[in-house]
Specification:
There is one protein chain. The longest helix has 19 residues. The chain is built from three helices and four strands. Helices cover 42% and strands 27% of the residues. The two termini are 16 Å apart. With 98 residues, it is α+β, with helices and mostly antiparallel strands. It has one domain: Alpha-Beta Plaits.
């Protein structure tokens, strides 16, 4: 799952709290793994407004595992941190070509 994130003013701290819960609790519980996380830089080729503050690539074993994670009542208790942190996000599922 490709995650493109744009933070609200001061939202990075809230997102970091969410990410810690995701990393330590929910990804291990549902078999997920962060493959890449990086801060965005000035785009080389993009339309205006297509720059992102952070990019993540997260592997889930199945789409069902992701769906079960976001439906988990304990996850629902921390998801507000993500919602408060972001003004825009794209979650783009992908399928490996090889």
């Amino acid at each position: 799952m490709l995650n493109l994130l744009r933070f609200a003013e001061g939202g990075r701290a809230s997102y970091d709290q969410y990410a810690e819960a995701l990393r330590t609790t929910f990804l291990p519980r549902y078999g997920g793994e962060v493959l890449y996380a990086g801060d965005g830089a000035t785009p080389l080729v993009a339309e205006h407004g297509q720059d992102w503050d952070m990019v993540l690539l997260v592997r889930y074993p199945t789409r069902r595992a992701f769906s079960e994670m976001v439906a988990d009542p304990a996850y629902q208790e921390v998801t507000h941190l993500r919602t408060e942190a972001l003004v825009e996000a794209v979650l783009q599922p992908t399928t490996p070509l090889v």
